[in-house]
Structures are given as structure tokens and as C-alpha cells.
Design brief:
By secondary structure, this protein is of the alpha/beta class. The protein contains 19 helices and 13 strands. The longest helix has 24 residues.
Length: 391
């Protein structure tokens, strides 16, 4: 291992005197720790700046706390150009060289592994070999969901999607904070820690520009930067809006197919999450307009003149739930459907007649329990804060 590589790796690993694991977030991702002793590859993926690297470092610290020697653990920032890890061959040389110097069981933490060409087949080969290596990898692209990757790593990995801070995490970062502050600015860790509005806006603007330019336009090889940004900003400005490709195509003078390509690239980069319409038929669900939510309400805050706490609360609930669907009928709309509940979200003290109208009949028909999330807990409602602080 040459001196440049050694210096880079020494600065980011457990033996470094400046190793910092940051504010604890592992409590929100207990499976990461629970599954570390298993051989399966741990895949940590999510939007840029959500804290994936910090979570990997916290896993490293957890291993040290369990008695694993520092030299048995190696963190590799795969996107560092000075390491020259352009393909799996260079990565294998680095790891093999380290293994020669430190024989025995090893834990390799590979950060931003999508920068390494051919990483999927390499990890499959390494996993299937007799080498006593455990891999924890991170990346900023939903490429980890791609069919070819899933096929190669089937039965060999566990997937963990990392989001911006949930409300419980937010209060650990900012004990003096409030639900209103969280809903107004979202949960990017550095934004939560920032002390003034100007810094928060600058951070959010930098994040948004980086994601659009590097993770969407460059990765998907899109041409018209101005159109891509304008369309995505329109989507981000309306959390919970239904994505009508034909309408967006007309608005931005694009073809529906081009719009769908832009939106797919945004979802692939984790910039937006799509919530499909509830149906027992996947075919029917695919032919109904999905709703779109930003990865973080902070992006919406950049693009609107006034914070709408109702929409912000809906975003927070969607992020907390993860997988969910929604329901729309002539009677009205239900924000989220889970396996057990039909959930309506409002930032008022009580739901309006319109917000309540569709719940009873839907719950009777599809055997769900009604749950109304509002500003405070009453006989008919549960407070949004109480709900968001549940694990």
C-alpha cells in the first residue's frame, strides 16, 4: 500500500486520533447493528448529506465497543479521486493488500461504492469466496434497487434506506428545538445544527444544486439543465401533489416520455419519493397517478414564499411511514394507507368535515383502523408530534 493511500485511510479510520462518530443515530436504524455479525452485505443508501457516512462510522465505533480490534476494520471512501478506485480491480488490490498485512476476519466499510465500476459483480465474487470479509457499503443512488444488482446480490445483502432526520433524531441534534422548526426546515443534519436562516438556506441550496447536477443530470445524461431543474422544482414545491406526466409535459413543453424520464432520474437519486394509489391490483395501481414527496421539506422551503405546515406535516408522516399508499375517490382523499391503518393528516386542531368524510366508509370496506393526526391529541385525533416520535 503506497504512502498516499495509507495517509488517506489512516485519517478516516479508528486508529486516527481525530476519529469522530458524531451524534448517535444508530438507535433509529437498529438492524444495522443487529445484522453486523452476519455475513450478508449491509447496503446503506440514501440522498446525499443525509448522514450515511456518519452511520458507517458509528457502526465502526460499535464494533470497537464490542472488542473488535481497530486494525480489523477498514473504512474506504471510494469516491476519493486520490485513491484511484475507478474499477473493481483497483478496489480488490487495495483490500487484498490490507488483508495481507492484517490476516484474519476483516470488516470493510466501502463508502459511496457506486463510484467503483463493476462493484456489484466484485462483491458477489468476494462474498461467495472463502475470505473472512464482511462488507458494509453505502451509496447515493437507488441503483441498489436495480434489477441486475438485486439479482447478483439476492440472498447476500440487507438494504437500509437512510433519510434525513426523523423528529426523534431531530431533538437529539437540537434539544431546544420544536416541531414547528422541524416542519419548517426539514431534517438535514447540518441544516438542523445551523444557527441562522441564511446558513440554512445556503446549505439547502448547495444540496439541491449538487443532487440535480451530479446525481440526476450527469448520471442520467440529461441535456437541458434548465428544463430539468424547472420541472423538479415544480414537483418539490408541492409535497403530496399528484404526478400527471401529460400535464407537466404541457406546462414545460416536453413530451410525457421525457417528463417520466426526468422523474425517474429524480426518484433514482432519492430526491423524491412516490406514493402509489391503494389497490389490491398492482396493474390498477400503476395506472393511477402517484403522489410525490420531496426527500426533505427543506427543499420545499427554498421554493415557496410561505411555509404550509399542513403540507410539511404530510411530508414528515410520509417519511416516518416509509412504504405506504394513498386513496382517492369521489368522497374525498385519504393521505396514507398502511397494512393496518388509514391515516389522515391535518395541522388543525380537528379534521374538517371534508378530511373526515372518506375515512369511515374506506375503513369499513377495506378493514383498516382510522387514524387522524392533528396538532393535538383529542378523542378523535393523535398529535402529529406523538406519532412522529414513535419508533
Amino acid at each position: 500500500m503506497d504512502s498516499t493511500t495509507l495517509n488517506i485511510l489512516s485519517a478516516v479510520n479508528l486508529r486516527s486520533g481525530s476519529f469522530d462518530a458524531g451524534i448517535d443515530r444508530l438507535f433509529a436504524y437498529p438492524l444495522l447493528i443487529e445484522l453486523l455479525p452476519r455475513k450478508e452485505i449491509q447496503v446503506v443508501a440514501g440522498l446525499r448529506r443525509t448522514g450515511k457516512t456518519v452511520l458507517l462510522r458509528q457502526c465502526m465505533r460499535a464494533l470497537a465497543d464490542r472488542g473488535i480490534k481497530p486494525e480489523q476494520v477498514l473504512f474506504v471512501p471510494c469516491d476519493n479521486p486520490l485513491l484511484g478506485l475507478s474499477s473493481f480491480r483497483e478496489l480488490d488490490l487495495l483490500l487484498a493488500s490490507y488483508a495481507d498485512e492484517h490476516p484474519g476476519a476483516l470488516y470493510f466499510f466501502l463508502d459511496e461504492i457506486q463510484a467503483v465500476k463493476g462493484w456489484e459483480r466484485y462483491l458477489k465474487s468476494a462474498y461467495d469466496s472463502s475470505r473472512p470479509w464482511k462488507f458494509v457499503i453505502s451509496g447515493s443512488s437507488a441503483h441498489f434497487f436495480a434489477a441486475d444488482t438485486a439479482t447478483l446480490l439476492t440472498g447476500r445483502h440487507f438494504f437500509h434506506r437512510i433519510t434525513t432526520l426523523g423528529l426523534e433524531e431531530y431533538f437529539r441534534f437540537r434539544p431546544e428545538g420544536s416541531l414547528g422548526d422541524y416542519l419548517s426546515w426539514g431534517g438535514f443534519p447540518e441544516v438542523v445544527l445551523a444557527e441562522n436562516e441564511r446558513t440554512r438556506r445556503e446549505l439547502l441550496q448547495t444540496y439541491l444544486t449538487t443532487v440535480i447536477e451530479r446525481d440526476i443530470i450527469r448520471r442520467a445524461r440529461l441535456r437541458d439543465r434548465r428544463q430539468v431543474r424547472a420541472l423538479l422544482e415544480a414537483v418539490l414545491a408541492t409535497p403530496g401533489g399528484k404526478l400527471n406526466s401529460s400535464r407537466l409535459a404541457s406546462q414545460f413543453r416536453l413530451t410525457p416520455k421525457t417528463v417520466e424520464r426526468y422523474l425517474a432520474a429524480a426518484a433514482d437519486a432519492f430526491l423524491i419519493s412516490l406514493v402509489p394509489h391503494f389497490s389490491f391490483s398492482k396493474r390498477k395501481s400503476r395506472h393511477t397517478l402517484p403522489k410525490a414527496y420531496p426527500a426533505d421539506y427543506g427543499f420545499t422551503r427554498l421554493l415557496v414564499k410561505r411555509v404550509e405546515l399542513g403540507r410539511a406535516a404530510e411530508w414528515a408522516v410520509q417519511q416516518h411511514l416509509g412504504d405506504a399508499t394513498y386513496w382517492s375517490s369521489p368522497e374525498g382523499e385519504i393521505d396514507f394507507i398502511t397494512g393496518a391503518e388509514a391515516i389522515q393528516v391535518t395541522f388543525a386542531d380537528e379534521p374538517s368535515p371534508r378530511e373526515w368524510a372518506s375515512l369511515p366508509s374506506f375503513c369499513r370496506r377495506f378493514k383498516r383502523s382510522p387514524l387522524v393526526l392533528a396538532r393535538a391529541t383529542t378523542e378523535r385525533t393523535t398529535s402529529i408530534e406523538e406519532f412522529l416520535r414513535r419508533r
